[in-house]
Design a protein that fits this description.
Layout (H helix, E strand, L loop, with lengths): L1 E5 L5 E6 L8 H23 L6 E5 L2 E3 L4 E5 L4 E4 L1 H8 L5 E5 H12 L7 E6 L7 E4 L2 E3 L30 H4 L1 H12 L6 H9 L3 H25 L3 E5 L7 H14 L7 E4 L6 H19 L1
Parallel strand pairs: 3-7, 8-11, 11-12
Antiparallel strand pairs: 1-2, 4-5, 5-6, 8-9, 9-10
Helix pairs in contact: 1-2, 3-9, 5-6, 5-7, 6-7, 7-8
């Protein structure tokens, strides 16, 4: 878990981290979140001289942001957690905003990170899976049912590997950090090898690594071109573990996207700027947005 005290301008005033402890079960994780938030607020009162005026929390899985409910998260095992209500009670009644982790990270990247100044952007973190956040005029589009931006489940290879969602050849089965790790572990014969090792082998000219990397980049470009055909973003922000490879990823990716487009305009393709602090910075922005909405109402 990552947490922060965030100023009205998005400035990171204090940051802390704790183990999620999901092995203790969903109820214990929820209690850990509530305790962490209370401790963070107490830190602000003691060290910064004032108390937090609102709270934001970003969680994975299916999120009902409007009603403040963490609906489902397979990794954490929870269902229908009234997160906004519980956190509000623990924090003495301050306003609480709830968001989806990727969309919240995208909000931060769009406003104060790599997408600053971009009216339309798409944020795509390449991690265990692949998700997306659609930025429009300073906000993140969540869709009618909260599922907008699930670019990882665009089918790019219909005969490809099975995906946990039930389809075959989804983008995340081929181009996520996990997918590259699996492919490189098999190709190298080293079960402990991961995506970062593959990137290093590419840089040293290993032909097997180059082949694994090319396959992933080609699949990623196919998925991204589908997304930009639908959304026409001005900026495409790539984050997550795979983006840490830097130009080893970005140079061939930009070329592969440019090769695939016909009439579409190629967006600026840039690395994410905020790293793994994007989520808690975004949660802070959600909290400030909540306050500004209440003031204007």
């Amino acid at each position: 878990m990552k947490a922060a005290l965030v100023g009205a301008d998005g400035a990171l005033l204090y940051e802390a981290r704790r183990a999620t402890g999901r092995e203790r079960g969903p109820d214990a994780v929820v209690e850990s979140i509530l305790t962490f938030a209370a401790d963070l607020r107490a830190y602000g009162e003691e060290h910064l001289g004032e108390s937090a005026v609102a709270a934001g929390v970003a969680v994975p899985g299916i999120v009902d942001a409007e009603n403040g409910i963490a609906v489902y998260a397979s990794n954490l095992g929870w269902r229908d957690v009234p997160m906004r209500e519980l956190l509000g009670e623990r924090l003495g009644g301050v306003p609480v905003a709830l968001g989806h982790d990727v969309r919240t990270g995208g909000l931060a990247e769009g406003r104060i990170g790599a997408g600053r100044g971009a009216d339309r952007f798409l944020f795509v973190p390449l991690g265990t899976g692949i998700a997306g956040a659609i930025g429009i005029a300073g906000t993140i589009e969540s869709g009618a049912h909260g599922y907008a931006g699930e670019i990882g489940h665009i089918v790019v290879r219909p005969d490809g590997p099975e995906c946990g969602c039930g389809q075959r050849g989804c983008l995340e089965t081929l181009a996520s950090a996990s997918a590259v790790t699996r492919a490189w572990a098999a190709a190298s014969g080293d079960p402990t090898a991961d995506a970062a090792d593959c990137a290093k082998a590419v840089e040293s000219g290993d032909p097997a690594a180059v082949e694994v990397w090319r396959n992933a980049v080609d699949a990623l470009a196919a998925g991204l071109v589908t997304a930009l055909t639908l959304l026409d973003p001005g900026t495409l922000i790539i984050g997550g573990g795979l983006a840490e490879a830097g130009e080893t990823l970005f140079t061939p990716l930009r070329a592969a996207v440019e090769e695939r487009v016909t009439f579409q305009k190629v967006p600026h393709i840039v690395p994410a700027a905020l790293g793994d602090t994007a989520g808690c910075l975004g949660a802070g922005l959600l909290a400030w947005d909540l306050l500004s909405t209440e003031v204007s109402a």
